[in-house]
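Hey,

Quick one before I head out. I ran the complex with adenosine-5'-diphosphate overnight. Inputs first:
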Amino acid sequence: MDVLEDKAATLSINAITSAEHSGNFRTFRKLFASWGFTDSAYWYRTTIVNPGKEPRELVLEQTTSWIDSISLYTPSDDPTKEFSVIHTGDRLPFNQRPIKHHNFLFPITVAPGQSLPLYLRIESRAAVATPLTLWDRDAFGNHDRTIAYYFGAFFGVLGIMFVYNLFLFLNLRDINYLYYIIFISSIALVFATSKGLTFMYLWPDDPGFIERVQTAGLSFYQLGGILFAKNFFDTRNQHPRFNNLFLFLLTGHSLIILLAFIVKDVIPLANISIAMVQINAIILLATGLQAWRKGNQTARYYLAAWSLSILGIVITALILLGVMNYNFFLYNATFVGSLLDVAFLSFALADRINLLRSEKDHARLLVHETLRKTKNELESKVAERTADLRAAKEIADHASSVKSEFLSNMSHELRTPLNSILGFAQLLELNDAHNLSQTQQENVQHIITSGNHLLCLITDVLDLSRIEAGKLTVSMESVSLRDILDNTLQLTTSLADEYGVTLYDQTPADDFCSIYADATRLTQVILNLLTNGIKYNRRGGKVFIDVSLSGKTVEINIRDTGQGISGDKISKVFQPFERIDSDKKGIEGTGIGLAITKHLISLMDGSIAVSSSHGNGSTFTLRLTLSDSPPSIAEKRSLAQTGDESAFPSEQHQILYVEDNTLNQKLMRHIFSRHKNIELIIADCGLKGVEIAKASKPSMIIMDIRLPDISGYQALKLLKSMRETASIPVIAVSANATIEDLEKGHQAGFVDYIEKPVDIQKLMSVVTHCIQK
Ligand code: ADP
């Protein structure tokens, strides 16, 4: 091939073929003519000879897609013209191409024996590189099919990577994958454009636009690479200096992309973009190297990716610049490099994910380990604390049981002398001889009142201590409210008379409801409220009691017309030992009653409330639950009311009294000394008592519970076990006087259980009952 450079790009075919210029052609022996960026036009000249007998169908192929103008001149068949010409190039619409192909093709037919001269004129503002091939038409067909396979493979790989990484992006929401697919798309665009595919398929009628797409595509490719690297290496935090460069390049490329579609002449922009390729490549490589130096292992894949890509570009560039000889595969090294780039970047991403995962695993392990340690520490601390608490609780329990025991012993010990005090005082009161003066009788009354007060105090303090120790229990059953009200009203009548207060029972007269409560404790509660209503009243005052039912609840209101309680003190009434101003007014009481009442009511799942204002009386309201079942038949706990002392037997009887306390023995002797037909035998311990009972078979036995040898219960058991004594009625008289004691006594088989201090009248009526039997 001969070549001529037309520097002014003005020569015509006629000028070229004239004697003036035809001698200026130089012989050119390379496969690939590359002239770089130039304003010159180039003329190629050759002659094709067909030595055969058949016409040869040939195709001349020029594969660089960006050449502006290519014209093939061949001798004309038309006698009026010397040459016929075929114009093509990327400045002309696609459908004007002589053969509709993404490369520039010219059909050439050489007749047998013909020697055909060819002139090819090339002009382009972009790099002029012209890989020319003269094909046999059939051979070209085969070659073209092969190329189509290569394209298929290339775009196939990119397509798969695109879809796969899009899928990863949507699933993992890792922005790196998005940049990666942007990068893949940019490679596809650059490749398709440089191979003339976008011109052929997308914008065939718009040659000017393709130049713009080419320019924008090249910048888009670089932009994709930078975005990926920027995010992949987190340059903002890890490599701030590179980050600034990246920002600069990103801005530059974005501007080029934008301007490519605006400016009139896009070629200067294209040249800038091409120049930036080198800067880009160096910066991307440097970033990878720095990351690698900093210990980022994933950077190895990244470096491999870009090295291969750059190597491809360099090889292609060397061929384009004519430094290396043309070879189809080497000429396409850029694209092979790009494919490898895509593959290695994908490895880099995968490696990065692995790295992140192993970091996460490590962190998880660390957290797990820390948690385990903390848990162990906590457990041992909890164990320590539990042990401390257990020890403290044991101490507290011990102290509490010591306290309870102390109080119950105290109560027992106080009741024993009180038995003598009240007993002898009662004897004096009952003195048949009437030889006490008025003053003496009044003094005896004082002893009895004070003794009883002391007794109340002992009972209440014991109750309170048992409540605080959680030892007080209630036995809930269905009880008739009417029975309880009758009982309490009866018990308070004499007190009301004493205080000059009238009781008004405004509850229905019939057995109007059953409630769920502990009968004894509820009696105690209502008794306390009625007593308070009377005590904290005025002479001529009133106490009303009424009930109202609503749903499953019964409300019991106890209202008085006393002085009431002022607002600031009302909250204190349920606190133990709070007597407000009662001490000053000289009203008897302990200040514990309402505290016990509140506890008892809450044990019975009820509530108590008070409303009062100073000078207007008070109303205490109890709320309890109604019961569906009829009231249980109330057991007669005491025989006190059944025996009538006037019916005291006249025949001779022996009564055995088992008691160790001499004063109590003496008291009992005095009590029975009033009845000549009763012989009181005394035993000072349990076993003696049993012995005497067996020997003398008394009409009844009065048994103390705390005895020096065996307890009253054990003695009772022995008596019941022996035929001779089994039928003798035994009653208990004891200073163990809680409700539970009474209960226990009845269950053990005592006919009755009388608490000390003994109410003489009550004792006598029980005795009468027993003897009469
Ligand atoms: P006590 O009556 O033995 O003092 P309570 O616990 O029953 O103990 O009552 C505590 C205090 O509440 C009483 O001292 C009294 O000041 C006040 N209080 C109780 N009931 C009434 C009432 N109905 N009217 C006025 N004050 C009352």
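The chain is about 55% helix and 15% strand.

Talk tomorrow,
K.
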